[in-house]
Amino acid sequence: MADSPTDVLVVGAGIVGLATADALQLRLPGIGVTVLEKELEVAAHQTGHNSGVLHAGIYYTPGSRKADLAVSGIESMVDFCVDNAIPHDRCGKLVVATTPDEAHRLEILAERAGANGVAVSRLSPEAAQELEPDVACVAALHVPSTGRADFVGVANELARRITSRGGSIRTGVECRRAAVVDGNWLVDTSDEPVRARYLLGCAGLHSDRVARRSGTDPAARIIPFRGEYLDVTGPSADLVRGLIYPVADPRLPFLGVHLTRGLDGQVHAGPNAVLALSREGYRWRDASARDLAESLSWPGSLRLAGRYWRVGLAESARSLSTRRFAASAQELVPGLDPADFARATSGVRAQAVDVRGNLLDDFHLVGGDMSLHVINAPSPAATAALEIGKLVADQVAVDLPRRAS
Fold it and tell me: How confident is the model at residue 252, as a pLDDT?
């Protein structure tokens, strides 16, 4: 039999789940919080497999959750890193246009940045080369507030804070079915069952499944996209000082192949974006018949493929050819040598797709009976994690007294 109920059960110990648990403890002192994580450590998936970039908020639709939470979130995250001695910086980045058409899109991006309250500078090619001497462009934007952070370090510090206040983080425990029994959630797990007054789903790659297993329709399906990276080594690495981005394709939620120098000094090119054959498919050979069947059977997947099949073929071809991949990076820095590129660790993006085949562009939260599920939280979720946590904690603070009355 399950123990006495905890107040809130959080499913998922990525940076969003941990930030939410931390925010709950700050918002409602003394609240009982339990976090379940199926892996043996926190931050095992999206948090531990991203580029480590702190996004300033220039890409997102003004007034959207992504725009508002990224802009406030980067400041919160930097403050958190400062307060807890977590490696980070504000190195800035260049967004470069390599054609006249891209230069026009760059102007639209600059206007969107201004609408979101993010300061940017328009640069000539010569001014851009003062920051990145080997870049090639016809125009550029400089975004000085962009930075880098050790998100795994942030997650570990959040976990420490949660347990220091009496919260529980149970790793190696998978959440299965959940139902309301006698006014509380009864959650079946791979270990002992758990009872809770309130259920919060922050399960990333499995967020839609957690919602469905608890009786909530997420109105979308998580389709996993693998983001592949290449290491840039040798003399080519010396051609990249910081962060160099292309002008993103406005049709897609991905930012295109860019060049990033991490806090450790390592330079990466990527990501390429291809359909992953498993929700945790970090390599082509990582395949799950169940995951693939779920992806392909979702009506929205076929509609999405019909809309973007040319893009998908191009991304797949680049995935299979290091030379093609390097050529995309050479559009930004022509002096890069393909011989200096090598396969690196990939990430998997948990992208929610609705039944009409639309890629959900904003953070997507779905409420249920005594529950709330964060269904879509891809980039810039790491940057905005502390603000997402506050948003969710505020909602729980409203719900819990009402449910208890």
Answer: 66
pLDDT tens digits, one per residue of 211-254: 999 999 999 999 999 999 999 999 999 999 999 999 987 666 67
Check: CB of residue 184 under 8 Å from CB of residue 196. Answer: yes
| Listed residue (348, 21, 345, 346) closest to 155, CA to CA | 21
In angstroms, the CA 359 to CA 351 distance is 7
What does the pLDDT read at residue 311?
Answer: 85
Rg (CA), the chain: 21
**In 160-172, which positions are buried (b, 16+ CB within 10 angstroms) versus exposed (e)?**
ebbeeeebebbee
Write the pLDDT tens digit of every residue in 277-323.
Answer: 999 999 999 999 999 999 999 999 999 999 888 888 888 888 888 99
Domains belonging to the chain, first-starting first, are: 6-47+152-220+361-404 (3.50.50.60), 93-144 (no CATH), 222-359 (3.30.9)
Q: Note the pTM of the prediction, 2 decimals.
A: 0.95
**Cα of 25 vs its chain's centroid, Å:** 23
Quickly tell me which residue has 């925010």 as its tokens: 23
Angstrom distance (rounded) from CA 381 to CA 181: 33
Distances (CA, A) of 198 to 116, 306, 337, 344: 34, 40, 54, 40
Name the strand (E) or helix (H) holding 126.
helix 125-131
